[in-house]
Amino acid sequence: MEQLFPQSTKIECHLFRVIRGAKDDPWDHYPDKNHEESEYEPGGLIDMVSGELTARRFAGVVRLQVSQGMPDDLKFWICRQLEADEEDIHEIEGLLSLTDLARFNSEGRADLQYPPHI
């Protein structure tokens, strides 16, 4: 974190990620060959996927990943706030997701970029 926010005063820093799961399979609601042709509407697949993504945002927590070393009281507080079970807590060593760093904007900060490779 010191490299990402060098001017900040660090009090305490812990990472966590919430994994949610929708309760049903969206493909169960998509028409198949046995249904009437009128059920195939333009954009039906897009609507189905959009609905699934919206439902997932509000679905229950299936896993709470926390950085190793997070104090127990903080883990349990986050767990209560998310209405998750303590069994859903999983400690992860290191970064939780490298894809999050891929979106990190370093534009205008040459000190955060690798030198050009020729």
> How many separate domains?
1
β-sheet strand percentage? 5-15%
Count of discrete alpha- or pi-helical segments spanning 4 or more residues: 3
Class inferred from helices and paired strands? alpha+beta
Low-confidence stretches: none
Q: What is the averaged pLDDT score?
A: 77
Give the strand order, joined by hyphens, for the main sheet.
1-2-3
Distance between the termini: 30 Å
- Give me the count of strands: 3
Secondary-structure element pattern, one letter each = EHEHEH
Helix content: 10-25%
Overall 3D form? flat
Largest sheet: 3 strands, mixed
Radius of gyration (Å): 21 Å
How does this model look, in words?
The chain has three helices and three strands, in the order E-H-E-H-E-H. It has 118 residues and is an alpha+beta fold. The chain has one domain. Strands 1-2-3 form a three-stranded mixed β-sheet, with no helix packed on it. Helix 2 links the parallel strand 2 and strand 3. The two termini are 30 Å apart. It holds the Pfam family PP_kinase. This is Polyphosphate kinase middle domain-containing protein. GO terms for molecular function: polyphosphate kinase activity. It comes from marine metagenome. One of its GO terms (biological process) is polyphosphate biosynthetic process.
Which helices and strands appear, and what pairs or packs with what?
Blueprint: E1 16-20, H1 44-57, E2 61-67, H2 72-81, E3 89-92, H3 98-102
Parallel strand pairs: 2-3
Antiparallel strand pairs: 1-2
